[in-house]
Amino acid sequence: MIEFKDVNKIYPNGTRALHDISFSVESGEFVFVIGESGAGKSTIVKLLTCEEQPSHGSVTVGGQEVSGLPDKYVPFLRRKIGMIFQDFRLIPSRTVAENVAYAMEVTGASAKEIMRRVPLVLSVVGLKNKADVYPAQLSGGEGQRVGIARALVNNPRLILADEPTGNLDPVNGEAIMALLERINRNGTTIIACTHDQNLVNKMQKRVLQLEKGTITRDEYCGNYYCVSTDRELNYIGDNSESVSDFPADEAEAFVEFSESTSQTTDRTNLLDSLLQDSESRRKRYSALNRTEEMKEILKKIDERVKQREAMRSQNEMLSSREAQDSSAGNKKDPGEFFE
Fold first, then answer.
1. DSSP string spanning 238-301?
2. Domain 2-268 is in which class?
3. pTM for this structure?
4. Residue ranges of the domains in the chain?
5. Is 9 left (phi over 0), alpha (psi -120 to 50) or beta?
6. CA-CA distance, 159 to 323, in Å (whole number)?
7. 10 Å Cβ neighbour count for 217?
8. pLDDT per residue over 79-99, tens digit each?
């Protein structure tokens, strides 16, 4: 699914963000990337989304080396990755449903498909009754659930979560992680960058630890390796209340949403998939352009018809006046015939 091989990243100001890191992530894994600020976590996310390019080494996603991906395919790559942000990044002027729908609109999804899938994914995250609410009216936990719905609606093969619980209280943070756990169990690969040691310890997922741009630990079922304030760790997993106690309608919506979407398997080369998306979008725009061209042609024809009608009316008026003038000139006084 993902492979970093001997990757170095040096920014223009000379800062070395990553130093010869190599690791791979299999499809369907849930991985925590931990480390202090400046350790290189955000750089890994930027390399995966082609926001930055490695100074050396290669980054591969879905069988395609994205570090050499042509610029024209980068937007299509990003649409195949769900992004979850610490500050939610919702559009204030759009409702909850419109924020989620926007993620589908940019991919060229039909209005019918958007109307079908947006309510489903909102039900999955427990916001079915908040569809017409604006972001300013949401709590922090609800705002992040909208962010997850937006990331999930296109059924991506990969979700990147950058400090997804950073602005949330412990209760909401655990609920968000339980939701991501459920999404992961459906087959979506999740990479989460976080400082939340308690949640990392409770989740017991794979942990990649970064220190000054190098990987110092890669451990499956790992802990944060920081002293927890909890004496007893309650694992957030299949037997946890936060996972098993989802309302019945949310669970049913999740099953329906999962069945209504199909993920592209890793056997399909990512570049082939991007090419298909690019060609599909080109055809849509081509059809749209042809429609616009036809409208322009019809508009010009209509203008010509109107011009001809105006000229015809003008000629008829001139002919009528000439006839009237001629008739007036030929009209004689009766006395003239007896001269």
1. TTSHHHHT--HHHHHHHHHHHHH--PPPTTS-HHHHHHHHHHHHHHHHHHHHHHHHHHHHHHHH
2. alpha beta
3. 0.71
4. 2-268, 272-328
5. beta
6. 83
7. 13
8. 889 999 999 999 999 999 999
